[in-house]
Amino acid sequence: MGSIEREGTNVVVELTDLKIFVTIAEEESITRAAERLQYVQSNVTTKLRKLERELGVPLFIRHSKGVVLTEKGVVFLQYARNILNLAQEAQQAVGETSYPSGPLAIGVVETVTCGGFIDAIAEFQTMYPEVSLSIVTGNTIELLTKVLDHQLDGALVVGDVHSDDIVSEYTVHDECMLLSQKRYPSARDLIHGKWAVSPEGCPFRAVLEKWLHSEGVPLNNIIEISSLETLLSCVKSGLASTLLPQSVISGVYSSLASYPLPAAYRVINTSLIKRKKRYTSKAFIAFKDLIEARGL
């Protein structure tokens, strides 16, 4: 069992203690943390008290509904996560095989899955059967957060990503299109028409808002939809129009009418991102190489 000692003192912080602390902080409850870790609650409480005693500061404030981090607890949480993540990376680095294998978690925005992504995944699994691949869908903000929190090895996201802790391994340009069942929609149609949009934070919604604003058209009459499939079905039925990349126009949606945007709003990037770190698994490198070779 790993531990961290502070020279000149008797303080010993076990990695297990850090894991318990982080889980309590995430669950905001000792009871729920014990259930999640499948530990006896009394053991979790004892471990927490031991950690607080060794650090010499309280990490949580107890209340009737659970716990909340103290000011010192908030500071310690970031360090605890960093230590646990580094320990996990070290274990992966020394245990890695000479060929791509082991777990690989990749995040994907839904619009990416409409192109050749699924075929690329099938080819990747055929080439590297010993890689245990997990695909997680979400919007760009959700996936970026999961990459930074070490929940994902990388993610295919849309739009610009601004973070000093993130690097882009591959970028492709896609064309944003106005999708509508209306034929050659006019400015008047834009004013009075209904729009199907993804929730706040979606890059395509942001482009739509900027474009309409430039036309003097407010984005008021909207239907907010989380599912890409439902959003496209809404457009196909004629209920609303939307703005999405040209790559989604395939299969049952190939009949959707699409119209180009002004040049200033036409191009959007899709990027494969990962954390800046010393260790990158062979499985991730193989995935990146395949995506670069095939395209999306």
TrEMBL record:
Any Pfam family hit:
HTH_1
**Which SUPFAM superfamilies has this protein been placed in?**
Periplasmic binding protein-like II, Winged helix' DNA-binding domain
Q: Does the keyword Membrane apply?
A: no
Q: Annotated Gene Ontology MF terms?
A: DNA-binding transcription factor activity; transcription cis-regulatory region binding
Occurrences of domain HTH lysR-type (ranges): 13-70
InterPro entries in UniProt: LysR_HTH_N, LysR_subst-bd, WH-like_DNA-bd_sf, WH_DNA-bd_sf
Transmembrane region(s): none
Keywords in alphabetical order, please: DNA-binding, Transcription, Transcription regulation
Family membership noted in the UniProt record: Belongs to the LysR transcriptional regulatory family.
Q: What is this protein called?
A: DNA-binding transcriptional LysR family regulator
- Source species: Desmospora activa DSM 45169
